[in-house]
Specification:
This is DUF1905 domain-containing protein. The protein is α+β, with helices and mostly antiparallel strands and about 160 residues long. The chain folds into 2 domains: about 1-85, Elongation Factor Tu (Ef-tu), domain 3 (Beta Barrel); about 95-160, no CATH class. It is built from 7 helices and 7 strands, in the order ββαββββαβααααα. It has a 7-stranded antiparallel beta sheet with strand order 4-3-7-1-2-6-5, covered by helices on one side. A hairpin with a 4-residue loop joins strand 1 and strand 2 (about 15-20). Helix 4 (about 105-115) crosses helix 6. The longest helix is centred in the C-terminal third of the chain and has 17 residues, at about 130-150. It is elongated, with a radius of gyration of 18 Å.
């Protein structure tokens, strides 16, 4: 685990708040292509990845909901602890999607062949609603569209049914 203090910044061109990750921390991991668990102020933990910020530094986005939970605002200094995320997909899989993939052999086979980023997109999209029924509906729609797509040429738009 790596601990350090950082400041909440903002990328103005996309109006996004972020935690700056110093070059020394990035260098210690040796890559930006890593999934991490980020804990802020010993209060809130979430799964994340590093994004290049320039000059060897990186950032982790932090949304308004998380900032509110922490009681912090733009410019505040926070304590950050990062550790490697050893979970299979780099984020928690909703039980509705997990159950569907247990029952749908072809859907599971196709899901497993996707890039990690596409897998996380599906997991994130299914997780994006509170209702278990809506989660199941999203999971079914995405996996059915995945099975209809050309293997190796899957797109987010097609999975969402927009192509």
């Amino acid at each position: 685990m790596i601990k350090f203090k950082t400041t909440i910044g903002q990328l103005d061109y996309i109006n996004m708040k972020y935690l700056e990750i110093p070059k020394e921390v990035v260098d210690e991991y040796g890559t930006m292509k890593i999934r991490l668990v980020c804990t802020v102020n010993n209060v809130l933990s979430f799964q994340c990845g590093l994004m290049a910020l320039g000059k060897g530094k990186a950032y982790i986005s932090i949304n308004a909901k998380r900032m509110k939970e922490l009681g912090v605002k733009l410019g505040d200094q926070v304590q950050v602890a990062l550790e490697k995320d050893n979970s299979k997909y780099g984020m928690d899989v909703p039980e509705e999607l997990e159950e569907l993939l247990k029952q749908d052999y072809e859907g599971k086979r196709r899901f497993d062949k996707l890039t990690p980023g596409m897998q996380r997109y599906i997991i994130y999209y299914v997780s994006g609603v509170k209702s278990p029924n809506l989660k199941l509906e999203r999971a079914i729609r995405l996996i059915e569209n995945l099975k209809k797509s050309i293997e190796g040429k899957e797109t987010f738009r097609f999975l969402l049914g927009k192509d």
